[in-house]
Amino acid sequence: MKLRFSPTSPYVRKVRIVALEAGIDLELIPTAPWAPDTDLPKDNPLGKVPALLTDGGEAIYDSPVICEYLDSQHSGRKLIPAAGGERWRQLCLQALADGILDAAVSARIELAMRPEDKRWPQWVERQNAAVLRGL
Ligand SMILES: N[C@@H](CCC(=O)N[C@@H](CS)C(=O)NCC(=O)O)C(=O)O
Q: How far is CA 81 from the centre of its chain?
């Protein structure tokens, strides 16, 4: 399996940890999602990493879906149980972690990419507060 990845993406890091826990080797394909000439949308129309390419050539995207897919591809103890209360607890924890990442990335984009005169400090404060509550 191949993973389109960027070394700075926290979502990619999450997927790589799941792959390690599951004992699955991923071939890493360096991808710069923000590059204007990136071909990433052919594998993920949303233009985001991570995107997983299965051995059958299918593209799977959005990190929670990739994590669930990887977890289905090994015979060891499942990280995300198939059913029962523990499944919903794990999925909820993942949603919380993803929400923390969403808020942190959103604040980072505002501070690092948006022109200074167009920044919205209250937005950054709101995102940072969500990160802290989530943690
Ligand atoms: N919900 C997505 C978020 C992925 C995401 O936002 N990735 C960022 C890198 S950290 C990206 O590729 N951004 C490019 C863009 O938004 O155009 C997931 O969980 O996979």
A: 20
Is the shortest distance between the CB of 47 and ligand 1 below 6 Å? yes
pLDDT of residue 103: 98
How does pLDDT run across 46-96, given as a tens digit for each residue? 999 999 999 999 999 999 999 999 999 999 999 999 999 999 999 999 999
Give the three-class secondary structure for 48: coil
Atom number, ligand 1, closest to the C-alpha of residue 48: 12
Q: 5: helix, coil or strand?
A: strand
Q: What is the pTM of this model?
A: 0.95
- Going across the sheet that includes 59-61, the strands are 27-30, 2-5, 51-53, 59-61
Cα–Cα distance measured from residue 52 to residue 49, given in angstroms and rounded to the nearest whole number: 9
Mutate to test the pocket of ligand 1, among 49, 68, 127 (most ligand atoms within 8 A of CB): 49
Average pLDDT, the chain: 97
DSSP 8-state code for residue 44: -
CB atoms within 10 A of CB 100: 18
- Ligand 1 atom nearest the C-alpha of 14 is 19
